[in-house]
């Protein structure tokens, strides 16, 4: 896919390099623009970063390649996963994990846990 705003007739996502800016139309009628982050060949999934306001947060779209009706090459930008510009807040991720773990296991001093244990010993 060299140069200009040519529509692709091949629709082969494997030809798209990381950083390509695309305008995509799906078989379901959706139209959007995004930057190629990666293509996973075994699952046939194209990962795109959608344009957003300048911020550390990024919107990613995972799209099965067989749902791409056609796309237009809009240009090429820098690598979206460049470690110098990509920000990952490990403290916030750890806090989200702690909250998820806290809500996924019952507290040992909760009434639900107590009655579940009581039921188990009395009736099982």
UniProtKB/TrEMBL annotation:
**What superkingdom does the record give?**
Eukaryota
Record-annotated LSM12 LSM domain positions: 14-70
Q: Which UniProt keywords apply?
A: Membrane, Transmembrane, Transmembrane helix
User: Would I find Transmembrane among this entry's keywords?
Assistant: yes
Report the transmembrane regions from the record: 103-122
Pfam name, any one? LSM12_LSM
Q: What is this protein called?
A: LSM12 LSM domain-containing protein
């Amino acid at each position: 896919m060299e140069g200009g705003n040519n529509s692709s007739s091949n629709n082969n996502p494997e030809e798209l390099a990381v950083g390509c800016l695309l305008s995509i139309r799906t078989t379901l009628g959706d139209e959007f623009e995004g930057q190629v982050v990666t293509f996973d060949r075994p699952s046939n999934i194209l990962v795109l970063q959608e344009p957003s306001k300048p911020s550390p947060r990024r919107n990613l779209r995972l799209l099965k390649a067989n749902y791409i009706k056609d796309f237009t090459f809009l240009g090429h930008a820098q690598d979206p996963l460049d470690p110098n510009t990509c920000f990952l807040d490990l403290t916030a991720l750890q806090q989200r994990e702690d909250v998820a773990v806290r809500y996924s296991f019952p507290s040992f001093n909760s009434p639900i846990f107590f009655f579940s244990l009581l039921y188990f010993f009395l009736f099982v």
